[in-house]
């Protein structure tokens, strides 16, 4: 692993490889730990390796450049420890994906079968008794739990001095609590019907879910965690919070657009899945609020149907576009990006940190997957 940080390319292939090397090294050690318990656990490590083998690596990048923003470029030894600590966020992220796919009954993740379906396939392959579906869900939940524990172990064995890690720990704790609570807020929201008589409430509810389930977890806490490792002053942390929350919301809004209009081969999951699920997104909330009665009623009749045909998906997309919701979400993304970038000005951070966080902000919201 070599210190190859480049503020003009904060997600450079070399940096992403460093993250992958850190994850591979950690999981190799865990493979032996699980092997000593029993061969039955081989699928756990295999799937952990599969699902940590890809992704945008945004959270580790925000953490690394949060450190640089506060403390400047690290030396080689510090860089290696920081990469390992930052990479632990990927284990936490994948744990959330495993649980998310169970809750959403998703078929694919990162271009392959979702973990619960792979565990179900293992059950069927061995002709075990009981429900393969139930076995698959149990396996995926436990894999997610294991990855949460491993994320904690990885950060504590990264080589960061304990006093340094101690001052950053509150941001990790907040991140774990907020994403879990945000997930439950989302579950509660999804359990409530989309009612035409409370359209503004729908919009407000979606925004609150996004703040805690995505914005703080994806950007704000990772960048603050890295900055805390670098000894950031309170005013720097406040500026990074003002950067991270709007950028994290814009990041999720881009995901929502891709979930409806994205290319399935690029995004690695079924296109239109959010509409079949009836997922409460800002895009859908805007579409319902800004459609006429006929359009709103037709859209409500289409979304939330697991067997919605391709023709029905196309019609739902057309209704969303006609309502102006797609353009409205795009405008929100740009507005939130502008707020995030403005928060960096005068924040008292290093020039390299400012440059890299600006590049990362644009990469997070102007993407195709």
TrEMBL record:
Its cofactor is Mg(2+). InterPro entries: Isoprenoid_synthase_dom_sf (IPR008949), Polyprenyl_synt (IPR000092), Polyprenyl_synt_CS (IPR033749). The keyword Iron-sulfur does not apply. The keyword Metal-binding applies. It holds the Pfam family polyprenyl_synt. One of its GO terms (molecular function) is metal ion binding. Keywords: Magnesium, Metal-binding, Transferase. SUPFAM superfamilies: Terpenoid synthases (SSF48576). It comes from the Bacteria. One of its GO terms (biological process) is isoprenoid biosynthetic process. Belongs to the FPP/GGPP synthase family. PANTHER family: GERANYLGERANYL PYROPHOSPHATE SYNTHASE, SHORT CHAIN ISOPRENYL DIPHOSPHATE SYNTHASE. This is Polyprenyl synthetase family protein. It comes from Raineyella fluvialis.
């Amino acid at each position: 692993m070599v210190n190859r940080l480049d503020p003009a390319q904060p997600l450079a292939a070399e940096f992403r490889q460093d993250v992958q090397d850190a994850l591979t090294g950690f999981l190799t050690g865990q493979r032996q730990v699980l092997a000593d318990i029993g061969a039955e656990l081989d699928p756990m490590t295999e799937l952990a390796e599969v699902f940590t083998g890809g992704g945008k690596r945004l959270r580790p990048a925000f953490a690394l450049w949060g450190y640089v923003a506060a403390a400047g470029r690290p030396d080689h030894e510090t860089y290696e420890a920081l990469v390992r600590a930052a990479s632990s966020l990927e284990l936490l992220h994948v744990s959330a994906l495993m649980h998310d796919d169970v809750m959403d009954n998703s078929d694919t993740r990162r271009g392959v079968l979702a973990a619960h379906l792979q565990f179900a396939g293992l059950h069927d392959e061995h002709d075990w008794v009981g429900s393969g579906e139930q076995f698959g869900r149990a396996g995926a939940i436990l894999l997610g739990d294991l990855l949460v524990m491993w994320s904690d172990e990885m950060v504590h064995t990264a080589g960061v001095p304990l006093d340094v890690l101690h001052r950053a720990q509150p941001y990790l704790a907040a991140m774990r609590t907020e994403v879990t609570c945000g997930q439950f807020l989302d579950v509660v929201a999804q359990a409530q019907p989309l009612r035409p008589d409370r359209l503004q409430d729908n919009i407000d509810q979606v925004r609150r879910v996004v703040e805690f389930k995505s914005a703080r977890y994806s950007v704000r806490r990772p960048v603050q965690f890295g900055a805390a490792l670098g000894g950031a002053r309170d005013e720097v942390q406040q500026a990074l919070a003002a950067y991270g929350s709007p950028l994290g919301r814009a990041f999720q809004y881009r995901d929502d657009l891709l979930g409806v209009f994205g290319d399935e081969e690029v995004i690695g999951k079924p296109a239109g899945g959010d509409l079949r699920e009836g997922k409460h997104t800002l895009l859908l909330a805007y579409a319902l609020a800004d459609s006429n009665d006929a359009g709103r009623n037709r859209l409500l009749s289409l979304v939330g149907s697991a067997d919605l045909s391709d023709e029905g998906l196309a019609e739902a997309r057309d209704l969303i576009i006609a309502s102006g919701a797609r353009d409205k979400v795009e405008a929100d993304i740009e507005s939130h990006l502008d707020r995030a970038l403005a928060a960096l000005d005068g924040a008292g951070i290093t020039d390299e940190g400012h440059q890299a966080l600006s590049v990362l902000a644009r990469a997070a919201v102007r993407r195709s997957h």
